[in-house]
What does this fold into?
Amino acid sequence: MTALQTLFQQIAAQIYGYSYVQAAILAHGGDLNDVSYSGDFFGQTDSESFSVQIDSVGANDTFSWKSSKGAGDNVLIVANTPILLTDNIFIKFIAITGHTIGDQWTYNIESQSSFKFVHLWNDDVAAVLKEQPEEYPFPVPAAFIEWSLTEPKQLGLGVQIYDPLDITIHILAEEIDSGDGNLDQAFSIYDLSEEMFSGNGFWDGLSLFKPDQCVAFVRTAEDPPFGHGYLLHLIQKWRTNLVDPGAKFPRRTIKTQPTDEVTNRIPAP
It folds into this structure.
């Protein structure tokens, strides 16, 4: 995964404002409850549920898991080691034995923000907004993420930095006549703008948000909202930087001994 992909996923997870709740423990005769979850959910949906179940026991117990994004079975438990399921969600068991077949843990992830859809901004989205269809192909309120990359600077050993990295957040919301004569004053989208900045009490917003390999986000500008049919569009601009440590050393080294054919070309001393 590239540094930019990771950055996008972390911004999306922050905007969704996920909460993590262990919804149910179903033990079939066993007393061992040693499961914990970790990781920022990268699923780009406003809710998800993970179910983990012991499917074999012995010298080393195994488990199966499922969610709407995938499933797996006969996964070997490694003690005190987070095991990746999907979308950056990890599960960890304390013990490798002592469970009972059928022991099950369910874990719910739910968005606590007002935003129902977070996606990368691209030309297709811009084209759809320009057409102003009767129905848009995404739920609202929505947030689209766009960035403007500067020429990377070299930090040495193949590591580069984008500094500054300017990020544009496109906030889209439906404006419905409330019946109080305030149609077209766009008050509701300013509430979303403020939530994007400072959160809503359940999530913290983007102000001072610090993804991996970045400095804390700072809002630099905000444009007045404008319309796309029944949708309002407000643009926030943010600034950070991004260190891309993609290069790894050593690179392209020979890992096998030369064949006889190659060896025979080397003159004898």
About this structure: The helical segments are 3-16, 123-131, 187-198, 260-263.
